[in-house]
Amino acid sequence: MESNKAGMTLDKSVNFMQRAEALMDKWSAALYRFEESRGSQLTYRDSIGLKTLRIYQCWRLVMLDRAKSGVTDLESWDKYNSTFQMIVSLAAAVVNTTDTDAPISTTSLLPSDSFSEGCKRPSFSLDMGIICPLYDVATLCRDPFIRREAVKVLRSASRQEGLLNSHLCAVVAERVIELEETAALRSGTDDQRCLASAASHLRGLNSNSQTEVSSQHITRSSEVPHAARFVYAYPNFDPLYKQAFLVLAADQAGENHTKIPLPAVTAMLDME
């Protein structure tokens, strides 16, 4: 009986993945045809929308591929580095297009001379845009250059998308990068030590450890071992006490997690 149930569950899962893949293929083909036929006629707003759709196309293809393969190894994210780079490049193009081509009256209430000084035009949307994919790249891609470029784009943008703020996400992503790379350099391949290393790093390293870590740098994603990678890392907010925390998990079940204060983000919230 149990084997029959397991077989039925597997069949449903396979059927679901086949349908999801077929739908994604149709959607991608439709997007390609639209871009081919209308690409040269798009307004700047349409161009931004098209780039955003391509970002989500890249990201959904990654998630679909991981679901099909059934891989849970955190180092398997490295195979998508080229896709992560594409997402960052498209997001940067969205920010640059918004900043250089949009009429000021439609994107900001700031005086026009502020833009001549290099400030980004603030942008607000109730819909999700580039912030979530960029945050995912910064926290799931372990290539030190790609993930820092994602943070750079988040910082360069001045965007509010629903509840997501680009600057706040950049601050959180930077902390995740710091914790993972510090754990990789200090703690080797032990899960418990890596998580403990991340927590202790925020409380302050001793001078010897600080010197040891500062003299080393991660140069490629393969230098961040499985044990130093967090399964998920997301900000958590306590609206009552106006405090921000970073929730980190080092195992797939999420049982081995820690909650670390984010004083920099808390200070930013106090300014609101």
TrEMBL record:
This is Uncharacterized protein. GO terms for molecular function: DNA binding; metal ion binding. Keywords: DNA-binding, Metal-binding, Nucleus, Transcription, Transcription regulation, Zinc. The keyword DNA-binding applies. The lineage of its organism: Eukaryota, Fungi, Dikarya, Ascomycota, Pezizomycotina. InterPro entries: Transcr_Regulatory_Proteins. PANTHER family: ASPERCRYPTIN BIOSYNTHESIS CLUSTER-SPECIFIC TRANSCRIPTION REGULATOR ATNN-RELATED.
